[in-house]
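Hi V.,

You were right to ask for the full record rather than a summary. Here it is.
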Amino acid sequence: MRPERNLEAISKVMAADLRGDSMSLRKPLYIEQNAFDIALDTPIFRIAVIDDLLDDIENKCLTHTRIGPMIWGDPAENPLLEKRFPEEVTGCELSLEPLIEDLFGVCWSLFPSATPEMWSYYSYGRESIRIQSTPKKLLEGVMDLRNPYFMLQHFIGKIEYVTEAEFDTFYEDQDFTKYLDSLGQRIVLSVLKLPDDASAEEEVRLVYRLERNQEWVKNNVKIKGDGHIAVPFCWDNVIDGIVTNCTSSTRDLLEAKLHDFGIDTALGPR
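Predicted structure:
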């Protein structure tokens, strides 16, 4: 089982805060604090539909998908949505839904090469590319210094795969306090655990906690209304490698389009 929280990294943030370090100096510490069970420079990969990716790059955003069983097609995703906890003093039932209904994610993988089945599943029958990055670069891109609460909203972590019995035991626990902390880390960790029948995916998940009432969010995060949101994202130096399943002529056009957006990573064939 992974450590409950990144306590060592949290202590570094606290020390920097006491020193009065600027937010730009503290940002690397927040990145370390909000990365779970994965080295920040680890290569990670994602298959993306070309048109969708280009739309994100052009609009300087990264689309996230609401984490839950309906959209993700997996009842093990965000199981606390339907969970009710007994409250000993009043006898009423408590729900953590207000804390977890607005968790959004982007799936990446540690798997260095994609199988034909992976290409088929994640491309939805459309021309796609597979991009390479790192946890550090993703958090650098999504943690916007103009957002005063970025350190409480963006996280990344390797999925912890457990047996079905361990999964059920963990989420059947009636102690709701084990999901609560001042930094929101335990809530995020609750969507970074899955049964091991999905372990072949070797998933790494970028997680965003949407705070709808925050002024910066109202002005900058686009809620698409279909379970997706577009979060401001700086694509500079994020993509380390690209392979594609499209034709050579389309690949040349795509490479030129990416160049127009300031991304000069060469494209390789699948």
